[in-house]
Amino acid sequence: MSYSLADVSSAVEVLWPIRGAEGWDASGLIAGHPDDEISRVLLAVDAVDAVVQEALTTDTDLLLVHHPLLLRGVTSIAADRYKGSVLTSLIRGRCALLAAHTNADVVNEGTSGIFAERLGLRTVEPLVPNADGSTGIGRVGLLEEPMSLGHLAHRIAHLLPATATGIRVAGDYDRIVQRVALCGGAGDSLLGESGVRGADVYITSDLRHHPASESIEQSRVGGGPALIDVSHWASEWLWLDRAAEQLAALLPDLHITVSDLRTDPWDFVVTQ
Question: Do the domains 3-104+236-258 and 106-230 sit in the same CATH topology, yes or no?
C-alpha cells in the first residue's frame, strides 16, 4: 500500500506543526506533487548529494530532511549548482523533498528533547519556552547524578556518532556539573539566556570564537556555565530514529529508513 504525498504531509503536520517554525524558516514541502504516491521514505539531516543518491538507489519516494534545502534565497536552480543539482536529481528520480526544521526543534520529542532524553536528563523543560510553556527551543534539566565535566564530555562522545571535530570543551575537566542546558544545532545565540546562564554546562553546536570567549569570561566574573561544543549534524541526527518511529505509527504501511551517512562537513583535523 502507498500513501499520497498529501497524506504524508498531513502526518508531518500532526507531528511537527508548521506553526511552530520560526518566521525565518523554510520548512515544508520543497519538491513533489501532493498527488504523488509515496511508499518509501528516507530520513536524513541534510539534502546533500550523497544522501540524494542513497534515496534514488533505494527507490525512495520521499526524502524527509531536517535542514531545508532552500533556507536562503537562490536565483537559479541550474543543475551545475549544488541546490539545482539536488533538485534536478530528485525530480528526475521522482523523489519528493520535504523539510521539518525548527518546527521539529520545538516539540517535546524534537531534536533537543531527544538529545536531553538520551543524556538521561530529568525534570526537563524548554530552555526558551513558547507561549504554551511546554514547547520551545532547547532544553534544560538535571543529570541523575552530579559528575565531572570531563565525564559528561566522554558520555556525549559515546552517545553521538563520531565526527572529525569530536567534542570541544571550555571549562575545568574536574568541575562538577548537574544542571544542563542544551540546544541541538547552532545555539550560540542563546548564550545570554537565563536558562543557559543558570546552568552548570551548556551543550550546543557551532560555537563561534567571540560569543564563546565572552561567555566564558563572563562566567569567570559573575558565574555561568562551562561550554561543550558538538557537531551540528550529530546533535540533530539523534532525532531521526524517533521521527521515523512517530511517522510509522501514523502511517504504518510506509517503508521508512534512516540514513546513516555522515553529512557533517569536516573530514579530518590536524592537531599540533
Answer: yes
- In whole angstroms, how far apart are CA 13 and each of 29, 31, 69? 11, 16, 19
CATH no. for 3-104+236-258 = 3.40.1390.30
In 18-89, beta strands by DSSP E = 28-31, 37-38, 40-44, 62-65
Cell numbers for 211, please give them.
560569543
Tens-digit pLDDT profile for residues 138-181: 999 999 999 999 999 999 999 999 999 999 999 999 999 999 99
pLDDT band, residue 272 (cuts 50/70/90): confident
> Distance between CA atoms of 186 and 26, rounded to whole angstroms?
16
What is the CATH code for 106-230?
3.40.1390.30
pLDDT tens profile 173-189: 999 999 999 999 999 99
Instruction: Output Rg (C-alpha) for the chain, integer angstroms.
Output: 19
Strands 201-205 and 226-230 turn out to be parallel
Cβ count within 10 A of residue 106:
26
SS3 220: helix
Q: How many Cα atoms sit within 13 Å of 162 on the Cβ side?
A: 4
- Domain segments of the chain: what residues? 3-104+236-258, 106-230
Rounded to whole angstroms, how far apart are CA atoms 43 and 36? 18
Contact (Cβ atoms closer than 8 angstroms) between residue 261 and residue 51: yes
Tell me which residue of 19, 135, 28 sits closest to 71, measured CA to CA.
28
